[in-house]
Amino acid sequence: RMEGRGSYTLPTGTEYRGALRDGQFDGEGELLFPNGGTYRAVWHRGVPAQGKYTFADGLEYEDKKWHYCDGYDRRFYTEICSGLKPAGISQLTNLDPPRQIPEGCYDCGDGFYNPETRVIVDYKFRFLRNADDDEHEWIIRTCRKAWDETTEHKPKP
Fold first, then answer.
1. Cβ distance 89 to 82 under 8 Å?
2. Of 35, 36, 37, 27, which is closest to residue 6 (Cα–Cα)?
3. 3-state secondary structure of 5
4. Mitochondrion: is it a keyword of this entry (predicted)?
5. pLDDT tens digits for 42-101?
């Protein structure tokens, strides 16, 4: 069994780096997710006793007093860090400029969704999963879709 310090890659592509005891995560260690997020924790027999999740953009999740994108403050994390854009210029995603979505597809948060094939690929176009009916409906109803034409802010002359 795994013992000491090391790393282990799960079938999902998530990697664990840290202390191992009797084949389980035990002690200080972190999970590195394919989307760039990390979860650092103190583990006890494979279960996190305390930990903190950090998104790929540096935003740290707090389970208490979580105010990010709540009903009162709808700013993206990059807007909180760098300020709002001038009036008339919208920021559509936390990334600025936002990702270019392939024609006919949707940006579903962890990759692009093609409603014709019902396949979700990551942002490097590697297969992630097939969408079931519920996920398909949610993506079509909620997620940002590729525009049919390119638009950009044009300053007044």
1. no
2. 27
3. strand
4. no
5. 999 888 888 888 888 788 887 666 666 666 677 777 787 788 888 877 777 777 788 889
Please report which residue ranges of the chain form alpha helices under DSSP H.
77-82, 133-142
- Asked if the peptide bond before residue 98 counts as cis, ω within 30 degrees of 0, the response is no
Query: Would you give the end-to-end CA distance of the chain in angstroms?
Result: 69
Instruction: Tell me the C-alpha distance between 133 and 139, whole Å.
Output: 10
For 66, residues 6+ apart whose C-beta sits below 8 A from its C-beta are: none
- What is the number of helices (H) and of strands (E) in the chain? 2, 10
CA distances from 117 to 2, 52, 108, 120 (A): 41, 36, 15, 9
For the full predicted model, state whether its pTM sits above 0.85: no
Q: In angstroms, rounded to a whole number, what is the distance separating the alpha carbons of residues 66 and 48? A: 20
Using CA atoms, how far residue 38 sits from 7, 19, 122, in Å, is 14, 16, 17
Q: What is the dihedral of CA 93, 137, 122, 92, to 10 degrees?
A: -10
> Radius of gyration (Cα) for the chain, nearest Å?
20
By C-alpha distance, which of 94, 114, 93, 92 is closest to 102? 114
